[in-house]
User: Fold this.
Amino acid sequence: MSKYIKTIVMAAVAVLAVAFPFYTGAYPQSIAQSVLTYMILAVSWDMLLRTGQISFGIAGFFGIGSYAAVLSMLYLNLPPMLTILIGGIIAGAIAGLLGIAVLRLRGMYFAIVTLAVAEIFRIIMTNLKGFTGGPEGELLPQLIFQGNPYLTYYLMFGMAVLTIIISEIFLRSRVHYALTAIRNDEIVARSSGVNIFKYLVIIFIVTSVIQGMTGGINAQTYGFVTPESSFSLDYTLLPLAMALLGGIYGTMGPVVGALLLGIVSEYLKLYIPYGHLVIYGIIVVIVILYMPQGIVGLAARIRKAGARNE
Amino acid sequence: MLEIRDLNSHYGKLHVLRDINLQIGNESVGLFGPNGSGKTTLINAVMGLWKPTSGSINFNEEDITNIDTYNIARKGIALVPQERELFPGMNVQENLESGAAYIPHAKDELESSLENVYSIFPILKERSKQLAVTLSGGQQRMLAVGRALMAKPKLLILDEPSLGLQPSLVSELFEKLAEMKETVSILVTEQNVRESLKAVDRGYVLENGSVALEDSAEGLSTNPHVIKSYLGL
Assistant:
């Protein structure tokens, strides 16, 4: 039964998301695109988290993708769609090299390295003045799709759908034994023939490609990159808060969390500019204290309790 | 099948394995000894989970001393660790399947292996959709053994399988192991020497990291030192 409900809800959300731009103005549409952006980042962060590895490097790969997209367009004159792909490829390549070096680290050690990556690339981009425009960043001469907001929205929507599909494939296929192995029990997994390191590198590359492409789409939509905005810590912290709020270790949790927190934070921004992050913090604390499995986990618990009472 | 030569291992300055020599053919072998005698360290060394300082481990004429654990598993050694041996968030059948999913020669025979494990442990078939954490301690241990069998191992290693089990289940488990030794070689570490001597052909006694004794099961069960120290008679 719950499977049908889930499918119906998913389908309804998809239809709403497709029809959305036709019935609303420019402002709600830009919020929707930003919610989708964070949703993609939240789902991709959760995909790596399922292995037991916590990444604080989302903003890093997002920023790398943004810069790669903008610079490859400026210097190589490539078509915008291709530069988005290049954003993903470069983010993935950096993740691959970095992963081979540091994915033998676990837990906090790995998390801190990923945090450093975002910072290192932000500093590199700030200081390579001749190439990246330094602290002022670079402007694109024109926006993707000539700035057509419908098309940029659908592009980000397509990216979100793709991410959700990949996430579900990883959850359902046999790969998931390997991907949940470290979190569950690394020694058992290794003794049953799982090459944990290989799977970790693959998943790290996949999630970084997603984050890089999302950065590329974002940069092409707004037509600029700066070190401060492209590597903003927001791109790490907000998706993390969204996934925690919605519920981790699944696709639904980060999606629900991104929708809720994304929309709420836009309203909060209007009333308390810069103060919305405080509310974020409070939400995260409350969630961790009172519903460690997030909204989706809470809903599942209520459903189970209901089924018992019937 | 398995041949360990002059194996030494250290934890820092602590010399935990001293010149261990041990062979296993097509048979069932027990590894006995008190806490801290080096049993688990020896098993971890075989499985590639702990690197020895010197010496060699050969499996089917091949040196596996410095091979990664997952490759050792693929060559046909399966381990049932001492604790935390299951994926708690998966159901019984998924746990069993995960035992075969990453071993190339076992993956193709997943269905028949599953039947085989269910016929050895019928309770697992009844509970196949239940989460592993909801099983009793004894059932979890059987699931762990079943999961290891799914990998179609040539050598099955069990690290203290009786730990934390009630006596009737311990007897049952060793009866199952005695049945299995027709099809797979077994290395089992135990503190419950009395029960395990019924299931093994031969045994080694480890004391302070060295092999103190090596004999057939009968020989060990009549050895005065074993009787005094391990059988408590």
In short: The mean pLDDT of chain A is 88. The beta strands of chain A are 138-139, 224-225. Chain A touches chain B at residues 174, 177-178, 180-181, 184-185, 187-188, 190-196 (CB under 8 Å). The first helix of chain A runs from residue 2 to 23.
